[in-house]
Amino acid sequence: MATFSVTQARNQRMSFSGSDDQLKITWHADYFVDVTLGVGESISQINAYDILTASGVPVVNRTVYEVDNKFIPFVLCRSKTCRPHENLYTRWIVEAEFESSVRANSGEGENQPIAKPAGLTDITPRVVPILGETQKVLYEDKSDSPLDCARSPTGNWWSEPIIERIPTLALQITQYESYLSYEDMLRRKLKVNASSYRGQPPYDWLIQDIQPTEVTVPLATGSVRAVQVTYTVEHSPHLYGWKTDRALIDSMFLETADDKTTAKAFQNKEPGSKSNGFITVSGVKRPDQTGTPDYIQYESYERIEFDDFLQV
Q: Rounded to the nearest 5 degrees, what angle is found at the Cα of 238, between the Cα atoms of 237 and 242?
């Protein structure tokens, strides 16, 4: 049975390319695959699949780039091709291309090969910011003397509220973990921070997405199988974070008289007409009917300790 010996050639190549503020890094490396034929075997029996899947040849989407006993975190093999050597009939050449698997937000000098670390947690995670937006109803405008913009000059509520656009921040955190099960992903996805995270209070950050990839990471003691995980963690700019809130606005309010509580309708100035008004969390009419309403909050996401698994 044929055996294969794989060595990395010295003719490595590297390129940087960018668009807008994004940096793409591409490494090209060649590998020699020398075939030792078994008894009675012919080189014609060795095909490209045997070469590309030989032990020691980079695996697409799995192998992290190594060079000169160093490596570049999060740079993975993305493609490879092979061809027979022109002069040595038992040698093949594999051409592999490696690319950064993280949308870069750093400079060229921050993506150089580094010494192989002792453990996975010694590798600094990559953090990429992503800006988005959300919306909320505006009750007072942004002028120096805030105006009630929820109601018309007659005091009636606008049929279409004025909407404020608010910027949001999400972070894509990519790190190496020794193991990640389906159960781990289910426990972590769509959960909020139970404790303070990045200087923000509980319930302000939500894990929106988890993208795992099985990889082989070179360490000082040898290569290990690991999981490259990208967490998308989004911050809520709202006052109560990711809690679901409801404005305490109703067409009815509670009133208690003679130990009897009844529901009454908010009235416009015109006799017999109805309107909406501000209430409190107990359902009674709020004394001050101007400005912004009060809110009631509901926790619709479970809490989890981010520090138990996020490395930054």
A: 95
